[in-house]
Amino acid sequence: MKTAIATVSISGDLKEKLAAIAAAGFDGVEIFENDFLAFDASPREVGQMVRDHGLEISLFQPFRDFEGMPEPQRTRAFERAERKFDLMGELGTDLVLICSNVSPISLGGIDRAADDLRELGERAKPRGIRIGYEALAWGRHVSDHRDAWEVVRRADHPNVGLILDSFHTLARKIDPETIRSIPGDRIFFVQLADAPRIDMDLLYWSRHFRNMPGEGDLDVTGFMRAVAATGYDGVISLEIFNDQFRGGSAKPISVDGHRSLVYLMDQVRRSEPGIRIDVPDMPDRIPVSGVEFVEFAASEADAADLGAVLNTLGFARAGRHVSKKVDLWRQGDIHIVINTEQSGFAHSSYITHGTNVCDIGLKVADAKATVGRAKALGAEPFEQPVGPGELQIPAIRGLGGGVMHFIDDKSDLARVWDIEFRPVAEDAQPRGAGLLRVDHVAETMAYDEMLTWLLFYTSIFQTRKTPMVDVVDPAGLVRSQAVENGDGSLRITLNGAENRKTLAGHFIEENFGSAVQHLAFETADIFATSGALAANGFRPLTISPNYYDDLDARLGLDTEFLDRLKATGILYDRDEQGGEYFQLYSPFYGEGFFFEIVERRGGYQGYGATNAQFRIAAQKRHLRAKGMPRSRHTGPDLP
User: Fold this and answer.
1) Cβ contacts of residue 543 below 8 Å, gap of 6+?
2) N or C: which end of the chain has fewer CB atoms below 10 A?
């Protein structure tokens, strides 16, 4: 399998784009004509620059409004094509994309289009150039790959073949299974793009909202299965038009693109076992069964403050590391680790971000296989020297330069808490609050990072994504999307901020990058937990009485039940199936981090999105009441 990406998919000038594409591991590149025209170098110099990066020019594109033109435009179209053939010869590429005509003066007719392509094929043949014909979803006369194939079939020329693009097929809801009847040797090139399902003009949708396979809602896997079934073994390439990508950093977007293609072809290989696909060998997506631990990096002073907060939440200090300044706090199946070492990764994380979640440990079916799959998909492995009494725990880099470790039951990893920690006896243990496990981990990031981490989690682990929702902050919108496994034992929410005035944006700025902003713990009885927390000295976030008045108006709650919610500061949600969700929040710890306690009843699967704006308003009131100092960065205070 050879991979490529169109230069239009990423930001920068042509030189910057090629460097990013090569570094990401692609084999080739589609030269988008405007990228070439805007670059100050000759065609030969550009061709050499591509080859110097270890790449090949897989395709030159696009050539527009060719077939079916009346005279004198028809003659002019052939003259334009000859000029492009000259250019391609200097660039050193042999395949050009002809997209179906959109000109209002173009003439219809399959035979007319086929005749034009046959003649163009004859002109291209002596130059060793091939013509690829693609149906644009908004083409004037040809907008369906089946019609495009019929044009190519009737042209009946060895230098004329079909180019398929997943967006153009799937956006029009054309059954991709119809591709299976096309001979693989007549398909010259395959372009891939996903997109969120949006009801809008096809051209506008295509030009602004495409994304990498696996990041959207289209059945790109089904499309590629059908292509593979034809016997096609040529280049698969990404053609992504996306405002966010064109404004972002070329390097990470290129890495995402390569990851998406490897992930896609791995899925195709597993779903079509009779088809041989050349893709890196890797384990299947890894089953994951929850969060095994969360590690904070902290100073000694901050660790004492954090330990006091954990005490009020009912956690007990249960162990001390055998060789490091690392403490284990435990309640139910929740393991919180506080690392105050003065060297190593955690210390570096503290120096950069202050007290923060620097490491998340996931319970997986096979820790070694997890790292193997992650590396095959371009993730960065993580290792540091193993000290006395420590296990070598497989790990990779995660969000914001943090670390993600993996624990399984197949080795001594299952006994990590007994092996690496010695029990400690505290004079006064807090009253347990009935917290059972980590319900979800909430990661906050810049909005333009969300697709990266969505693809990261769904390609490595057996997880699915939920629909994106808008979280209303008084200072702007925050986009939120969750990644979950099948039974809900792993839930990670990705929260994307677009401006620093939102609480999420402020957290990113104060933390110097994306990070975990809050941890949600599950309880089986929110009211009993609330009582135990109060006995430990916990004071919940204060919620406006207006919230409860509106809650009553919306849901018609029993008066006694409503009074209990109001008295304890618990927020409430109910879904259409009668499932219930209870939320209790801590005030902020440090620069915007907080804890949440939740209870789910009746199969509730959401995250209380309707309550988010009221929680955020309460948190901002809390900040103002504390007289929170101005940001350490230049700019206005939070509203």
Assistant:
1) 566, 569, 571, 614, 615, 618
2) C
pLDDT at 632: 36
Could you tell me the sign of the dihedral formed by the alpha carbons of 629, 633, 634, 637, in that order?
Answer: negative
| CA separation for the pair 346, 295 (Å, rounded) | 9
The single residue listed with the structure tokens 């057996």 is: 462
Contact 187, 230 (CB under 8 A): yes
**Tokens standing for residue 333:** 């199946």
- Helices and strands of the chain, counted as H and E runs: 21, 25
Which stretches within 475-525 are classed as H helix?
Answer: 503-511
**Do 174 and 144 form a contact (C-beta atoms < 8 A)?**
yes
**Would you tell me how many other CB atoms lie within 10 Å of the CB of residue 607?**
24
DSSP codes joined into one string, 188-223: EEEEE-B-----S-HHHHHHHH-B-TTSSSS-HHHH
Q: 276: pLDDT confidence band, cut at 50, 70 and 90? A: confident
Q: How many CB atoms lie within 10 A of CB 406?
A: 25
Q: Is the pLDDT of residue 506 over 80?
A: yes
Residue ranges of the alpha helices (H) in 25-109? 33-37, 43-52, 73-91
User: Do 583 and 606 touch, CB atoms closer than 8 A?
Assistant: no
Q: Judging by DSSP bridges, how do beta strands 160-165 and 130-134 pair with one another?
A: parallel
pLDDT digits (tens, 9 = 90+) for 511-556: 888 999 999 999 999 999 999 999 999 999 999 999 999 999 999 9
Q: How far is 533 from 432, CA to CA, in rounded Å?
A: 8
Mean pLDDT of 37-54: 96
pLDDT tens across 391-404, in order?
999 999 999 999 99
Give the residues across from 330 on adjacent strands: 316, 335
Residue 573 and residue 551 in contact, taking contact as beta carbons nearer than 8 Å? no
Q: Is 308 exposed, middle or buried (0-12, 13-18, 19+ CB in 10 A)?
A: exposed
Q: Interhelix angle for 450-460 vs 250-271, to 10°?
A: 30
- Radius of gyration over alpha carbons of the chain, in Å? 28
What does the mean pLDDT of the chain come to? 94
Residue 631 banded pLDDT, cuts 50, 70, 90:
very low
* Torsions phi, psi for 518 (to 5 deg): -155, 155
End-to-end CA distance of the chain: 53
Kindly provide the residue ranges of all beta strands, DSSP E only, lying in 381-533, ordered along the sequence: 395-397, 403-407, 421-423, 435-446, 464-465, 469-473, 476-484, 491-497, 515-523
Q: Kindly report, residue by residue over 123-146, the tens digit of the pLDDT.
A: 999 999 999 999 999 999 999 999
Say how far apart CA 374 and CA 279 lie, in whole Å: 14
